[in-house]
TrEMBL record:
<dbReference type="InterPro" id="IPR029032">
    <property type="entry name" value="AhpD-like"/>
</dbReference>
<feature type="region of interest" description="Disordered">
    <location>
        <begin position="1"/>
        <end position="24"/>
    </location>
</feature>
<protein>
    <submittedName>
        <fullName>Oxidoreductase</fullName>
    </submittedName>
</protein>
Length: 379
């Protein structure tokens, strides 16, 4: 007998199939759906502790809030080319939140998903949602395993190219959001509370970085002759950022997301300092993104290519770089276990809270960028 769906999810762990139920069970934390700031999810209530930092970083935090409202509006109507429903989007977000293990995110996305009616109980609908959540789980936890076959499976269940771009942006955004929230929780000295049984992200194998082939798309990019004015405006804004030049014509299939993402990318200082560049390279090495990794030309290039442990050994006599590698690796592999203890070595080396947050922001953005590059193209 075909399993039937019921509307709502009473727990964090989203299931693609479920039995019929007479009554819908409320989420564990229903109030999490009503939080005013859908990016920091209540962390701004601790503003008395980090008031100068929140004020200095307000443009970044406002951009994150705008992206959250854009990707997860209160309501939306799918179209023929953009078929993802609000239920799909929140189910994807909840899946990524589960992978990161950040409970604040799990509470929020579960509470928002709960009242929405799920898709029908047909085999096609169940298979589609299964493929969506499986792709999201893999891209969030092990980006290096995503290949052309993974995109073909999405195409087989009816997703369009704009759908796959939006899906990848959602996974990237929630991965970014999780690391910003984790970093701020550590800066606030909040106790670490992680879910037992969740594994750390597994580092990509070294052979991913051995070849230096030309980057090419796995999906057809937008053609200029078919581009709308909104898409051309988003492309023009994004092309000003060198790190986006490779993929803007593909990301333009979702012009609002591209425009908001490029705006966020333009807010940090234009050029990353040596520590921030090193931290971004650590994230790219773990996530298996050779395109992003090759932008780093610092002293630890060869050591990082061989592995994070070798880079840590090579930096042992340089306490600041050693601490940067440790922080970036922890934030990328297991952000839910980041604590104030991981930040203390950097504070000891003279970093201010603002500089430390900039470093966290760079790592979070790198994790988003790595996932887009890994998904949409290959070398």
């Amino acid at each position: 007998m075909e399993p039937r769906r019921y509307s709502g999810n009473s727990h964090w762990y989203h299931e693609t199939q479920a039995s019929a139920r007479a009554e819908q069970t409320p989420p564990l934390y229903p109030e999490a759906a009503e939080v005013e700031d859908r990016f920091l999810l209540g962390l701004q209530q601790n503003e008395s502790i980090l008031t100068p930092l929140f004020q200095a970083c307000r443009p970044l935090l406002c951009a994150g809030q705008a992206l959250s409202l854009l990707l997860f509006p209160d309501s939306m109507t799918p179209t023929l080319t953009h078929t993802l429903t609000l239920y799909d989007r929140l189910a994807i977000a909840l899946t990524v939140a589960q992978v990161t293990g950040i409970q604040r995110l799990c509470n929020h996305y579960a509470a928002r998903l709960n009242p929405l009616p799920g898709p029908d109980s047909s085999r096609e609908s169940n298979n589609r949602l299964t493929q969506l959540t499986q792709y999201a789980r893999q891209l969030a936890g092990q980006p290096a395993v995503i290949d052309a076959a993974a995109l073909r499976r999405l195409d087989d269940v009816g997703l369009t190219t704009p759908d796959i771009v939006t899906l990848s942006q959602i996974v990237g955004f929630v991965s970014y959001q999780a690391r910003i929230v984790a970093g701020l929780q550590a800066l606030l000295g909040m106790p670490v509370c992680w879910l037992p049984g969740l594994n750390e992200c597994i580092d990509a194998p070294a052979h991913c970085f051995a070849l230096a082939g030309e980057y090419h798309f796995r999906l057809p990019p937008l053609e200029r002759r078919y581009a709308s004015e909104q898409q051309l405006t988003a492309i023009a804004a994004a092309q000003a950022l060198p790190e986006l030049a490779d993929i803007v014509w593909l990301l333009a299939h979702d012009a609002p997301a591209l425009h908001a993402w490029s705006h966020l990318q333009s807010l940090p200082p234009a050029a990353a300092n040596a520590e921030e560049s090193l931290a971004q390279a650590v994230a790219a090495r773990i996530n298996g993104s050779p395109v992003c990794f090759r932008r780093y030309q610092g002293d630890f290039l060869l050591a990082l290519q061989n592995g994070i442990d070798e880079a840590l050994a090579a930096s042992r006599r340089q306490p600041l770089n050693h601490a940067v590698i440790q922080l970036a690796a922890q934030l990328t592999r297991a952000s839910d276990r980041l604590s104030a203890a991981h930040l203390q070595p950097l504070l000891t080396q003279g970093m201010t809270q603002h500089q430390l947050f900039n470093l966290i922001q760079r790592v979070a953005l790198a994790n988003w960028h790595n996932r887009l590059q890994q998904t949409l193209g290959e070398c």
